[in-house]
Amino acid sequence: MILSSSELKQNAARKASENEYFREAIRLCRSSELDALVAPIIDKAYRDINCLDCGNCCKQLRPPFTPSDVERIAEQLSMSDAHFTEQYLEDVKSREFAIMACNPCAFLNEKACRIYAIRPDSCSDYPHLHHPGFKYRIRSILENYSVCPIVVQVIEDLKGRIEFALN
Ligand code: SF4
Ligand code: SF4
Question: Which residue range forms the structural domain that includes residue 20?
Answer without folding.
Answer: 5-54+127-161
